Amino acid sequence: MSPYLSSWQQEKIQSLMIEAGQKAKQLASQEFEVFEKGFEDYVTNVDRLLDQMLASGFAALFPDDGVITEENTASRQVFDTKQSRLWLIDPIDGTEDFIHHRQNYAVMAGLLQDYQPVLGWIYAPTHQKFYWGGADWGLFRAIAAEPSEPLLPKMAELEPQRCTIILGDRDQRRFGQAIAEQIPTVQFYSLGSFGLKVMEVLQGRAGLYVYLNGRVKLWDTTGPIALARAAGLTCCDLTGAPLSFSPAQIEPKTLSHRQSIVIGWPDCVSALRPQLQQAVTRVLRAEAQAKL
């Protein structure tokens, strides 16, 4: 059992997240409202409904902890209060997939202990797959109604220079050509949820997941990176610095990461990170020159 929570609390978390995920799946087949929070940043009334449901559930389970949810902007103030335990909750990770009736969205939760991601849960209702675990606990998976089982990380089988890279659509449009020129053997693919992308790497279907556009927030990353670290994946930025969840590396208003993000098998990261850094730097310099 995890040292961070009781078996009773773990059961309640799973039940709550499955309930939220099944609710999302049900409402996805009905009419729902879509709103634009910012440039290419969307939310639905389903996100907001599940946000309230999950926030209430976690607050009841952990009354002495901080609870931060994506759609409750007021809850972000808890982040910089030096509270030792913070729950980060994303009611629908991959909202654009949800909006377009695609399958790769998930309900996610993660625990920061003293600004370190230690536990994570990812539930993909359309796939009926649930992943959870963390530090000093292990990794677990449940598929549909089958009993839970240990989740054994599987290293990508390709040589490091031929590792498949998961790169989001926006990053592919901006950096894909430069990366392909720098690493001619590279292959890209993508899917919706940040958390499900990390699980692709953890299960050996890709060597790296690279996130470069600066939009990702703590509720996107806390749970998945807790699982990635527990699996032995390297989690760093393009310079090789470890990912930090401390207030110094997080934008205070949005709770977005200041760092770029690289998550992958150590051999793939060692082989490809410097080349990725060179490609991205070249694009950024070209963009800066174009503005002069």
Can you offer a commentary on this structure?
This protein is of the alpha+beta class and 292 residues long. It has 2 domains: 7-150, Fructose-1,6-Bisphosphatase, subunit A, domain 1 (Fructose-1,6-Bisphosphatase, Chain A, domain 1), CATH 3.30.540.10; 160-291, D-Maltodextrin-Binding Protein, domain 2, CATH 3.40.190.80. 36% of the residues lie in helices and 24% in strands. It has 7 helices and 14 strands. The protein has helices at 7-28, 45-61, 95-99, 169-182, 194-202, 218-230, 266-291, and strands spanning 34-38, 41-44, 66-69, 85-93, 106-113, 116-124, 129-134, 138-143, 149-150, 164-167, 187-189, 208-211, 234-236, 261-264. The strands form 3 sheets. It has a 7-stranded mixed sheet with strand order 3-4-5-6-7-8-9, with helices on both faces. Helix 4 (169-182) crosses helix 7 (266-291).
Short structural summary:
By secondary structure, the chain is α+β, with helices and mostly antiparallel strands. It has 7 helices and 14 strands.
Key terms for this structure?
292 residues; alpha+beta; Fructose-1,6-Bisphosphatase, Chain A, domain 1; D-Maltodextrin-Binding Protein, domain 2; 2 domains; seven-stranded mixed β-sheet; 36% helix; 24% strand
N-to-C SSE series? HEEHEEHEEEEEEHEHEHEEH
Tell me the β content.
15-25%
In helices, the fraction of residues equals 25-40%
Strand order of the largest sheet: 3-4-5-6-7-8-9
CATH topology of the largest domain: Fructose-1,6-Bisphosphatase, Chain A, domain 1
Described by the principal axes of the CA atoms, the overall outline is globular
Beta strand count: 14
CATH class of the largest domain: Alpha Beta
Supply the number of structural domains.
2
Count of DSSP H/I helices: 7
Name of the CATH superfamily of the largest domain:
Fructose-1,6-Bisphosphatase, subunit A, domain 1
Radius of gyration: 18 Å
CATH architecture of the largest domain: 2-Layer Sandwich
Overall SS class = alpha+beta
Unreliable parts: none
First-last Cα distance: 57 Å
Q: How would you sum up the major sheet?
A: 7 strands, mixed
Q: Mean pLDDT across all residues, rounded?
A: 94
